[in-house]
Specification:
By secondary structure, the protein is mainly alpha-helical. 71% of the residues lie in helices and 10% in strands. The longest helix has 34 residues.
Length: 119
């Protein structure tokens, strides 16, 4: 099992991951580190544990908002799919809207999955 060295708040950590996930893990660590660094700038160095806890809570809040947004988009997609019969032009625009919403939903779900893996 590969191990990746990641840096969070100036400290290096060795973290194991699945084969092929090294770059993804590194990206996640950078994302976490950015939140920790932003917190350190705004509230100061209040201890590593507290900074990591606060960053984790901020990330959990982001995830919560994204999951709610996904749910809203899925509801909208379902509404558009069940749509009412209309003109051919209206149906084409409904299909396009559904495709756009489905693509946005997939992107948000992917991001939410990455955020969940931080927990």
């Amino acid at each position: 099992m590969p191990q990746v060295s990641v840096i969070v708040n100036g400290r290096s950590y060795m973290v194991a991951c699945d084969e092929g996930e090294e770059a993804h893990l590194t990206d996640l660590a950078r994302y976490l580190d950015k939140h920790v660094q932003d917190l350190a700038v705004s509230i100061g160095q209040v201890g590593e544990t507290r900074l990591l806890l606060m960053a984790g809570l901020l990330l959990a809040d982001e995830l919560s908002e994204m999951l709610a947004r996904i749910e809203d988009l899925e509801t909208e997609v379902d509404r558009l799919k069940s749509g009412r019969p209309g003109s051919e032009k209206g149906q084409k625009s409904d299909v396009l809207a559904v495709e756009v919403l489905e693509a946005a939903t997939r992107r948000l779900e992917d991001l939410a999955g990455r955020m969940e893996s931080l927990q």
